[in-house]
Amino acid sequence: MSLRIVVTVKYVPDATGDRHFADDLTVDRDDVDGLLSELDEYAVEQALQIAEEADDAEITVLTVGPEDAKDALRKALSMGADKAIHVEDDDLHGTDAIGTSLVLAKAVEKAGYDLVISGMASTDGVMGVVPALLAERLGVPQVTLLSEVSVEDGVVKGRRDGDAASEQLEASLPAVVSVTDQSGEARYPSFKGIMAAKKKPVTSWDLSDLDLDADEVGLEGAYTVVESATERPARTAGTIVKDEGEGGKQLAEFLAGQKFI
Amino acid sequence: MAEVLVYVDHVDGAVRKPTLELLTLARRIGEPVAVALGAGAGDTAAALAEHGAVKVLTHDAAEYADYLVVPKVDALQAACEQVSPAAVLVPSSTDGKEIAARLALRIGSGVITDAVDLEAGDEGPVATQSVFAAAYTTKSRVSKGTPVITVKPNSAAVEPAPAAGEVEALSVTFSEQATGTRVTGRTPRESTGRPELTEAAIVVSGGRGVNGAENFAIIEALADSLGAAVGASRAAVDAGWYPHTSQVGQTGKSVSPQLYIASGISGAIQHRAGMQTSKTIVAVNKDAEAPIFELVDYGVVGDLFEVVPQLTEEIKARKG
Ligand SMILES: Cc1cc2nc3c(=O)[nH]c(=O)nc-3n(C[C@H](O)[C@H](O)[C@H](O)COP(=O)(O)OP(=O)(O)OC[C@H]3O[C@@H](n4cnc5c(N)ncnc54)[C@H](O)[C@@H]3O)c2cc1C
Ligand SMILES: Nc1ncnc2c1ncn2[C@@H]1O[C@H](COP(=O)(O)O)[C@@H](O)[C@H]1O
């Protein structure tokens, strides 16, 4: 029996670019270059490693996002995933985490899965909640925020470094896993991988393919509203001194003036 | 007055500071009712009462320690059914955000994560968030159901406000999912004797410029002179000089102290994401062009191996 792995990947605005909001207070995805969320590369990497260990495995990468999100799928395919699913629909614009998890759950179920692997958080929203929501919706174990993961005999094991302790976790498949950036560097696509990716199948689904109605997703279906978004005022230029031998003392003087000493 | 559920983060009955901050925020929108789970849950009552909890719902069962996240969601859901709260507040921790999200989904609500402030609004609580590596400040609210909001540490002052804090046993029936993910081992983090990174009033961080694990002693000495927590950039963590639990930034801890001192850190966007909301920012870097200097209230262009020890000595001298 083949191990069916679905990796959820998000197409996000480049964090090193000038990210901002559109007029409807959603993340502007038009004016800023996008890419596969770097944190989801770690999910693709772990999927590849798990597939290499398994006798027989197939990796599907799944994204919910606009037309350009295909770029994220291509990147994941060129790293070595086998096929891709793109859920795309104009009515998805403005979908929040609760809605995204609904669409992902429907798509994952339609695709068929034994193991879902997600990133720890998207680099734009940074909520880090979609994997837990997905597990809740699918009714399967969540084995999230793993810095180490392995799958053997239908059981997933991993290490979760929490705030107070490091925990060893274990669950039976099917399950939803998310991995951190501590799980191991993601590989670069090889030239061969990039060429091969061009021929790999990308399936497109819209809301009707997933039996979803427009009002269940998008801005209308959202459970949260952003009332305002204001650019943080530039910090007032601070004092910068060059150390001429007294830099530490000058700094102490500043800290004393601010009552930190 | 409407009741507001506050999820209690505690270690064997010792309430962690972010929970006390939540009680301050909860009082702005209603009467805080605390929910404490697991071993020592009952021991939290005194501290919670002192900070405004009118009631403390407690429940202990082995499931809370033996299985991940879901048992706590079951308990919070039971508390919601018992209290019908106006909002649910949860500390933004690794577990906290996942608990909050699953709860929101179950009770047909929305979830807001990582709020840095909270105020009452005409249509329910309004949460302030800092997004895009703190380049923007947003105000949001949950528009359907009971708002579930997670709040970052250091978002409010801890204020004593004595209240009844009456302890009441919560009755919880665990769901089928509760036992899905087993915790087969747990290694508690070793205490460094320094303040908790996310809770500290002062954070002293070192980056690639520190150039070696052994040199972190310089950063630690400065931290200790100020009673501060020690942080590190990802470059320093990846090099193995300092533990990942101390990493500040997008994929590490997000800190918001009164004072942040960065030494040998360039100020990459992912690092800024975790420290840009600090009240006062200070940097020592030998490169005058380093982006960290765009953020600072006070910066010293110089060699950290000269500047930091001198600073530490001067602080010690001034403190006598
Ligand atoms: C998805 C993703 C997530 C990330 N998450 C994080 C994160 O959570 N946290 C994080 O920090 N980074 C994160 N990064 C990495 C980030 O992009 C930077 O690479 C990292 O912050 C750089 O660390 P640094 O400033 O210590 O090193 P560098 O950028 O190499 O800077 C070192 C600085 O030290 C100065 N210096 C050197 N020697 C001295 C000296 N003797 N005295 C004074 N100054 C000196 C140099 O001038 C330089 O400015 C992430 C990256 C990605 C892609
Ligand atoms: N639109 C999306 N399409 C596919 N996967 C997503 C999407 N949004 C979030 N995810 C997955 O959920 C993880 C956590 O995202 P978040 O909760 O938004 O921080 C990401 O790392 C992805 O694996």
How much of the polypeptide of chain A forms β-strand, as a percent range?
25-35%
Gross CATH architecture of the largest domain in chain B: 3-Layer(aba) Sandwich
CATH architecture of chain A: 3-Layer(aba) Sandwich
Radius of gyration of chain A: 21 Å
Q: What's the domain count of chain A?
A: 1
Taking pLDDT < 50 over at least 5 consecutive residues as the criterion, the unreliable ranges of chain A are: none
Q: What is the distance, rounded to the nearest whole angstrom, between the alpha carbons of the first and last residues of chain A?
A: 66 Å
Largest sheet of chain B: 9 strands, mixed
Strand content of chain B: 25-35%
What is the fold-level CATH name, i.e. the topology of chain A? Rossmann fold
GO molecular function (chain B): electron transfer activity; flavin adenine dinucleotide binding
Organism (chain B): Streptomyces ruber
Subunit structure (chain B): Heterodimer of an alpha and a beta subunit.
Family (chain B): Belongs to the ETF alpha-subunit/FixB family.
